[in-house]
Design brief:
Blueprint lengths: L2 H20 L7 H9 L3 H10 L5 H9 L3 H16 L5 H15 L6 H9 L4 E5 L10 E9 L3 E9 L8 E3 L15 H6 L7 H5 L7 H6 L3 H13 L18 H6 L12 E2 L3 E5 L3 E2 L2 E11 L6 E3 L2 E14 L2 E13 L6 E10 L2 E11 L4 E11 L10 H8 L6 E4 L10 E4 L1 E4 L4 E6 L2 E6 L6 E4 L7 E8 L5 E9 L7 E6 L8 E10 L6 E8 L2 E6 L5 E6 L6 E9 L7 E7 L13 E9 L2 E2 L8 E5 L2 E3 L3 E4 L5 E8 L8 H15 L5 E7 L3 E8 L2 H9 L9 H10 L7 E8 L10 H11 L3 E6 L6 H13 L4 E4 L5 H12 L2 E6 L10 E7 L3 E3 L3 E2 L2
Parallel strand pairs: 5-14, 35-36, 35-38, 38-39, 39-40
Antiparallel strand pairs: 1-2, 2-3, 3-4, 6-8, 7-8, 8-12, 9-10, 10-11, 10-13, 11-26, 13-14, 15-17, 16-20, 18-19, 18-21, 21-22, 23-24, 24-27, 25-26, 25-28, 28-29, 30-31, 30-41, 30-43, 32-33, 32-42, 34-41, 36-37, 42-44
Helix pairs in contact: 6-7, 14-15, 14-19, 16-17, 17-18
């Protein structure tokens, strides 16, 4: 497969087909707005009145185009979320300001009320009234240190016009002296009606500006302040319109609101559809409401990109319950132009609790301005309450009984070792089940129960357990696969079912699971059959029924997950289907060697791939991949001893760790924090956010014993599935006293993990030979280093050394020989003109 060309074609397809959707609609006229506002209920007219100072015209038009109250409620949430994303707490702050504006400034529509709502409270308010200066109208001068888009040291002058009752914002005309007369009191103007008089003339009535006369003048305390305000208020004609402008919003984000609700597109032609609803399976306490919408191919337009012809269908959906918007969703479907039949089946699966719902859809041809609005009732049938049946029974009801299928009952999502019981559920004419562990067949059971007790070893590590159903000819007809101890990689996608499908076709339900990092949001999950994208899902549940046509040879399903606004690359999972004979796994294990080089005791950063040689058990191997640290993000774990003996050092250790994260974390990096005393505990999961990590460090408390070895294994487990530059830093002050794992088991686990461990021993005396030996060996075998210091005050220096080393790494990768024995392989790295430090070996 030429994935580069396929990717270019898909990108072009997306760009052309989604472009029409993003086109802005024509703005509503003033009369149209007035008419639509009049037709709103009091609740939504009140909302528009409340947010009038901050709502943009595009936002107003979007709101007025909505057709139902549930859609309006969704819009209001979206309206505030757009502002909360850049200024957390904005909604509460705005309504607090609104209340103040009503109480202190008459209303939000007055000049002072609007300025207060838009720009917040002034840093200083200077009041001028008849008591302080009878020469001027009542004034208020508001001073702001900074206003985005206007500048710094901004002063607004509010005055009560002669004959008026409320303050008005004074705006300087092109010749600002021309407007000064508005600020002069009625008495002064009536006594001296010269329109060209200046404030200097008015204040000059106080007499010569001698010290004595100046102090006696009734406006002596006012004159200088007013003159400064006038000077600072000389905003240009270009600036004044900005004063009352609502804060900017992302117009594309506003238009995307219309992609969440079912409303007709103006001018769109009608699209014929046929709708049916079925309830094919249950998942725990929810039922799958499967809606099939048949669309005639004759009414759709085929688009060709890079020689590929396809139909594109977009579905926006709403689920309403008791008149309220229960959920909303959006799908994108792609069908090859040569799809069988006269009608395309658009299948949407929603997992719903038993109740009566109304389902509404907008089905659009992405290649033409044609759509259908579909509405149908869905009385979702009753399901058993949680606990009324076992996990095994629930899985049995989930799988279809009209063809052979096999599911492995999931094991607990935790670190597993030792003897584990594997249970299966099957349908169809199954004569035997073949079990494999990590690609090696270990048992074939030819009569029920089709279960297996398997020893996963004393050290927790990743294992793949596979079960294959065989027919009377011994041919594979169904199967499933699970992975245990798969780690805690923060971003991943997995095709849950089908995992193994040697013979499959027709309507096929594909279930996917996605894990999203903290602080990130998912943009989409795309499902491909071979190189053809079948569906794009934007929100859970990630369940999609697709049609797999009969075909020769091997096919594959591929799920690709993409994050919004993230440096993290998309992740994917692939499952092979319709294999002529069940394909044995080929164990292709890329060995990564994180390598630090030194010359005269200092890290070296200017080496090339040709400077390195790698040896596997003394035999040279070819370097398949060479990367310098500058091209790779860092995945960093920090495990800190919080046993009781760390109490005197804890505060200093927290500060040093926080400074370490601040120095070492760059864009694209991520880290986690583990504490350990009697047992290890995850304090902060993988996060790219320095604030999250610092907050995790603040939670550390010292207590109880030290489970050092358990903490190392627990922390290394989180690196499973994480590739590239990795490191674990372990800070401890003593001997392991509480671990369930032995040192030998931990060392074995660390060897298999291939993650450099940097150990920092605080206050461990030289006489503790066995403690230092074990700790040093654990770090040295993994390509890390060990440091011994007298107290926590030395942590900053050690962290600086570790940071320097991490920022000077190379990652060398190679594939071991196909016949490599399943034993410990020692590796060495030689480098021209320098020395190298890396992991001691690997298991193939």
């Amino acid at each position: 497969m030429n994935r580069t060309l396929a990717g270019i074609a898909l990108a072009a397809f997306l760009a052309t087909s989604f472009g029409a959707l993003a086109e802005p609609q024509k703005a509503l006229s003033r009369s149209e707005r007035k008419e639509r506002v009049k037709n709103l209920s009091d609740k939504y007219r009140q909302f528009l009145a409340e947010v009038e100072p901050i709502i943009q015209p595009e936002e107003l038009d979007t709101f007025l185009r909505l057709e139902s109250d549930p859609q309006r409620e969704l819009y209001i949430d979206d309206f505030w979320q757009r502002r909360e994303s850049s200024q957390p707490g904005y909604r509460a702050m705005y309504y607090e300001r609104l209340q103040i504006a009503r109480e202190q400034y008459r209303s939000a529509s007055t000049d002072r009320g609007r300025i207060f709502l838009l720009h917040g409270p002034a840093a200083n308010i200077f009041q001028v009234n008849n008591m302080s200066c009878r020469l001027l109208q009542d004034l208020q001068i508001w001073t702001y240190a900074q206003i985005p888009g206007l500048g710094s040291d901004i002063r607004f002058i509010f005055y009560i016009p002669r004959g008026g009752i409320d303050y008005k914002l004074w705006q300087s005309p092109s010749h600002w002296r021309d407007g000064v007369i508005d600020l002069i009191s009625s008495d002064v103007v009536s006594n001296n009606p010269d329109p060209n008089q200046s404030l200097e003339d008015v204040f000059g009535r106080c007499g010569p500006r001698t010290t004595q006369n100046h102090l006696q003048c009734e406006c002596a305390n006012v004159a200088d302040e007013v003159m400064r305000a006038l000077g600072a208020s000389q905003l240009t004609s270009h600036d004044w319109p900005k004063v009352f402008l609502p804060p900017p919003v992302d117009k594309e984000a506003v238009r995307r609101v219309l992609q969440k609700v079912v409303i007709p597109t103006p001018g769109a032609a009608k699209l014929a559809t046929e709708v049916s609803v079925a309830f094919p399976f249950r998942q725990r306490e929810r039922t799958d409401a499967q809606v099939t919408i048949l669309v005639p191919k004759s009414e759709l337009v085929v688009k060709e990109v890079g020689g590929t012809k396809a139909y594109g269908v977009d579905v926006i959906g709403e689920v309403l319950k008791d008149g309220d918007l229960f959920e909303h969703f959006r799908y994108r479907f792609d069908y090859p132009a040569d799809s069988a039949g006269d009608k395309l089946p658009v299948v949407v699966d929603r997992l719903l609790r038993p109740a009566a719902y109304t389902l509404r859809f907008k089905v659009s041809d992405m290649n033409a301005n044609r759509e259908a609005i579909v509405e149908t009732a869905a009385n979702v049938p009753e399901v058993l309450r949680p606990g009324d049946e076992t996990t095994v029974a629930r899985i049995a009801k989930e799988i279809e009984s009209d063809r052979p299928m096999l599911r492995i009952v999931p094991l607990p999502d935790e670190l597993l070792s030792g003897l584990q019981h594997i249970d299966t559920m099957l349908t169809g004419n199954v004569k035997a089940v073949e079990f494999s562990l990590d690609g090696r067949k270990i048992m074939t059971k030819r009569s029920p129960p089709y279960t297996l007790d398997v020893d996963l070893g004393s050290v927790p590590q990743a294992h793949r357990i596979r079960a294959v159903a065989l027919d009377e000819k011994g041919e594979a007809i169904a199967g499933d696969e699970i992975v245990v101890n798969a780690g805690d990689e923060p971003f991943r996608v997995r095709i849950v079912a089908p995992r193994l499908a040697p013979k499959i076709g027709g309507p096929t339900r594909v279930e996917m699971a996605v894990r999203v990092p903290d602080g990130k949001s998912l943009e989409k999950v795309e499902l491909f059959l071979n190189q053809s994208r079948m569906a794009t899902l934007y929100a859970p549940p990630f369940v999609q029924t697709i049609h797999i046509p009969p075909q020769k040879g091997v096919a594959y399903l591929r799920a690709v997950a993409t994050l919004k606004d993230s440096d993290l690359a998309p992740v994917e999972d692939v499952v092979m289907v319709n294999t002529p004979q069940f394909m044995a796994d080929v164990n292709v294990h890329l060995v990564e060697l994180p390598t630090t080089t030194f010359r005269n005791g200092r890290p070296v950063n200017d080496l090339q791939e040709s400077d390195f040689k790698v040896f596997d058990d003394g035999k040279p191997v070819t370097i398949s991949k060479f990367e310098h640290v500058s091209n790779l993000p860092l995945s960093l774990g920090l495990a800190i001893d919080t046993s009781a003996s760390m109490q005197p050092r804890m505060l200093e250790a927290q500060k040093a760790a926080s400074a370490f994260f601040a120095d070492v974390m760059h864009a694209g990096d991520k880290a986690f924090v583990v504490s350990f005393d009697l047992r290890p505990q995850m304090i902060q999961n993988w996060s790219p956010n320095l604030g999250d990590l610092t907050a995790g460090l603040a939670k550390l408390r010292a207590d109880e014993s030290t489970a050092l070895y358990d903490a190392v294994a627990f922390s290394l487990y989180d690196f499973v599935g994480v590739r590239g530059r990795r490191a674990l830093v372990v800070v401890t002050d003593g001997r392991d006293t509480a671990s369930k794992l032995s040192f030998e088991q931990t060392l074995e686990y660390a060897r298999r993990a291939g993650v450099p461990v940097y150990g920092i021993g605080i206050g461990i005396p030289p006489t503790a030979v066995d403690v230092r030996y074990n700790f040093g060996k654990l770090c040295g075998e993994t390509g890390g280093s060990v440091y011994y210091i007298g107290g926590a005050s030395d942590l900053k220096r050690i962290y600086d050394e570790i940071q320097s080393e991490l920022r000077s790494q190379y990652v060398l990768s190679f594939y071991p020989p196909g016949d490599a024995a399943a034993k410990w392989h020692e590796v060495t790295v030689q480098v021209r003109g320098a020395t190298a430090k890396t992991i001691r070996g690997y298991y193939p």
